[in-house]
Amino acid sequence: MPKLYVGMGSCGLSAGAREVLEALRNLAAAHEGAPPPEITGCIGMCYREPLVEVRENGRRTLYGEVTPAKAETIFRRHLLGGEILEDEVVLRLERDAAPAGQEAEFYSQQQRIVLRNCGTIDPESIEDYEAAGGYQALAKALREMTPPGIIQEIKDSGLRGRGGAGFPTGLKWSFAAGNQADHKYVICNADEGDPGAFMDRSVLESDPHSVLEGMIICARAIGATFGYIYCRAEYPLAIKRLTLALAAARQKGYLGKDIMGSGHEFDLKIKQGAGAFVCGEETALFASIEGERGMPRIRPPFPAEKGLWQKPTNNNNVETFANVPWIIANGAAAYAAFGTEKSKGTKVFALAGKILRGGLAEVPMGTTLNDLVFKVGGGIKDGRKFKAVQMGGPSGGCIPADLGDTRVDFESIPKTGAIMGSGGMVVLDDTTCMVDIARFFLDFTQNESCGKCTFCRIGTLRMLEILQRITDGEGQLEDLDKMGRLAIQIKEASLCGLGQTAPNPVLTTLRYFQDEYKAHIEQHKCPAKNCALLVDYKINPVLCVGCTICAKNCPVQAISGKPKQTHTIDPATCVKCGKCISSCNFNAVYKD
Amino acid sequence: MEHRKEEDFTYRLWRYDGEPGELIPLLQSAQDYFGYIPRRAIKYISGVTNVPESNIYGVITFYNQFRLQPMGRHIIRLCCGTACHVAGSKNLVSTVQDELGIEVGETTADGIFTLFTVACLGCCSLAPVMMIDEQTHGRLTPAAVRKILREIRRKEAVHA
After folding, report:
1. Fewer CB atoms < 10 Å away: N or C end of chain B?
2. Which residues in chain B have Cβ-Cβ distances shorter than 8 Å to A234?
3. Is A25 helix (H, G, I), strand (E, B) or coil?
4. Peptide bond into A99 cis (omega under 30)
């Protein structure tokens, strides 16, 4: 008998997976012999959620946008009747066959190492993880490998920190391993704060044990006995599943005083972040775990020497740890076979913004931006024009469409002025104003600056004021030079990554989209028709039916017109609040 | 439920063993129980941990999560991350403000809603998104937002 699986990641849940699961449970209860539906994590196709999968004899058939009614059809016709609803199949995966179905292209471009279990196993079941080969890498590391051997394997694999900086992981481990102390710590940084990034959340929700296993292997390699997972409080589901995973791992003897009978001790705790972006910076993260304000500390001493509680500490990102068990199990050479000369393996990207297929995709390092946007991502929504990708969140930058053949790896991306970052990739189309994007990020970093360094605290505020002025149409040409100078000062005089990279969104947009800045300043026009004060609201007489709803919603009575006749907006009275656009049912109001 | 939260908070205070790292979990637990961090909670925590009240206040105001004022029964967290921003989250903020008559960070007079904006909820492919309590709502339009808020209001009225 085939089995049904419902994708229960955050995306699935907010799209209605809980109702679907409930409906399927009721159906299974009413039909004798029908297996109850099982849950799984996120397969990455967030844009087709909620997803329901029918799995039989190694063949997986996925249906998308499932409602309780559609779930019943799948239950009756496919599960009980054995009939595949061909027109509805989103994805079909079979052994020894290429992916098929409507979204085959999204899946076939990928190479899933970090996401190997995501959307396949039940994240709340340790047995499922074990059945998928879980904890075998740990067994190998404990029984067949020495700590220097583990570190050498990670070094040979070429794995680099997936949090954004790309520091070689094996080298980092060797520093912490080389320092002697009575206690050492392993920390997993799950404080995924970049707006537009959700790789870590998805891995923690869909495959928490792979991260735990990576951490335990690391602890063995560097000789640590205790660890922390520092997770954002905004990710309640991830915290819940991690808590379950920890309890299960302890019970099975993968954590505790005597791991798998090897005599090694390691245990860990989940610390919930309290909402501060700067805590993604490792020294600030330590301060936060220690119960203080999360402010960065001066380095050296480096964490490998004096980190948390002044003890040698190794801190890696969620995705880095999730790679580790795969490397240990399959060997460094298998991992290094993917990617480019200096950036090995794969990278998970969170595709979002104006892209058709928004979701999670894992591709080999060195894939081009164009391939990611058009092949994996399916191109731009609503047939609009691809303008730029924003990579690396508030520390990153915007890469314009003409540089679409840039390869994503730790060498090529920084050359454009952006950074690799943790993997957030927000795709922008021609309706996005680049000055507004720069202002958006500066608003964010200015808010999140911890206040320790003057140039970061005040410099970003001055920059934000200038950007606000430009988007309000009151900017001057000399503002552009002023921002360039401020950018250098902020970069050079800030202690941590937050300040050092805060000007990047401004610098890259100034470099590639200076025309847009100039249009705002010289012509008082926003080419993307986005900046409210620089556009006029108008009503298209062809589309307007005179329903009067816009006039009723206008807070300043700027709209006039009789019922069933075309309405007009008086530009002198209009305050450009946009309520007419959001209330019109006929798309008759437009910005000019 | 309330009882469990009180127990958790008092238990944490009682069990405190001098680990300075416990301060933030203590504050989180206090906020969980009281709905915000009242002056007296700061006093209790300071008494047990020996961290000066002024330092605790410093930690509270540093992190976005902590509140010094009571919050509404339902917390709206409107996402203003990059993907939501380009999908028009600004419009949603003004829709909620208009519907509830409050600004960001404020609570409605009837104590039902408190409105916050957050940097990113991580549901970018469903942008624009908001979270009410633990429930995430995606692919929102101003009309959908109004409908969700009115639905909660209606349920609250039935309870009352």
Report:
1. N
2. 77, 118, 120-122
3. helix
4. no
Residue A122, both tokens: 């039940």
The position carrying tokens 């775990």 is A289
Q: Which residues contact A272 (CB under 8 A, 6 or more apart)?
A: A231, A232, A233, A239, B24, B25, B28
Contacts of A450 in chain B (CB under 8 A): 62
Domains A3-108 and A536-591 share a fold: no
Are A100 and A92 within 8 A, CB to CB? yes
Q: Which chain B residues contact residue A426 at CB under 8 A? A: 82-83, 86, 124
Interface contact flag, A46 B126, Cβ < 8 Å: yes
CA distance linking residue A562 with residue A269, whole number of Å? 66
Counting other chains too, the contacts that A153-156 makes at CB distance below 8 Å and 24 or more residues apart are A153/A327, A153/A328, A153/A331, A153/A332, A154/A221, A154/A324, A154/A327, A154/A332, A155/A332, A156/A332, A156/A333, A156/A336
For A409, phi and psi rounded to 5 degrees?
-160, 175
**Inter-chain CB proximity B118 and A234 less than 8 Å:** yes
Q: Which of A224, A242, A97 is nearest to A150 (CA)?
A: A224
For residue A178, the surrounding DSSP H or E stretch is helix A169-178
Tell me which residue of A166, A292, A187, A195 sits closest to A231, measured CA to CA.
A187
Q: How far apart are CA B77 and CA B128, in angstroms?
A: 12
CATH topology of domain A126-334: Rossmann fold (3.40.50)
Architecture of domain A434-522: Up-down Bundle (1.20)
Count helices and strands in chain A by DSSP H and E runs: 25, 18
- Contact: B83, A192; criterion CB under 8 Å: no
* Plot region of A576 (φ>0 → left; ψ -120 to 50 → alpha; else → beta): left
Indicate the pTM of the whole model: 0.91
- CA distances from residue A378 to A12, A103, A107, A352, A525 in whole angstroms, order as listed: 20, 9, 11, 12, 31
User: Given the DSSP bridges, would you call strands A226-232 and A397-400 parallel, antiparallel or unpaired?
Assistant: unpaired
The token pair at A38 is 């099982």
Q: Find the closest chain B residue to A291 by CA distance.
A: B21
Please give the DSSP secondary-structure letter assigned to residue B101: T
Report the alpha-carbon distance of residue A64 to residue A354 in Å, rounded. Answer: 20
Residue A97, pLDDT score: 85
Select the residue of A47, A193, A390 nearest B125 (Cβ to Cβ). Answer: A47
Q: Nearest-5° angle of CA A347, CA A401, CA A524? A: 130
Distance of residue A279 Cα from the nearest chain B Cα, in angstroms: 10
Model confidence over A11-58: pLDDT tens digits? 888 888 999 999 999 999 999 888 999 999 989 998 898 999 999 888
Q: Looking at CA atoms only, how far is residue B158 from chain A in angstroms? A: 23
Residues of chain B with CATH 3.40.30.10: 74-159
What is the chain B residue with the closest CA to A199? B122
Residue contact A359–B125, C-beta within 8 A: yes
Class of domain A536-591: alpha beta
Architecture of domain A346-429: Roll (3.10)
Q: Cα Rg for chain B, rounded, in angstroms?
A: 18
pLDDT tens per residue, range A100-122: 989 999 998 899 999 999 999 99
The domain made up of A3-108 is a member of CATH 3.40.30.10: yes
A59: left (phi over 0), alpha (psi -120 to 50) or beta: beta
Domain-by-domain residue ranges, chain A?
3-108, 126-334, 346-429, 434-522, 536-591
Percent of chain B with pLDDT over 90: 45
Check whether the bond before B128 is cis (ω within 30° of 0).
Answer: yes
Nearest to A195 among B81, B95, B142 (CB): B81
CATH architecture type of domain B74-159: 3-Layer(aba) Sandwich (3.40)
**Partner residue opposite A276 with nearest CB, options B63, B118, B142:** B63
Residue B2 has pLDDT above 70, yes or no: no
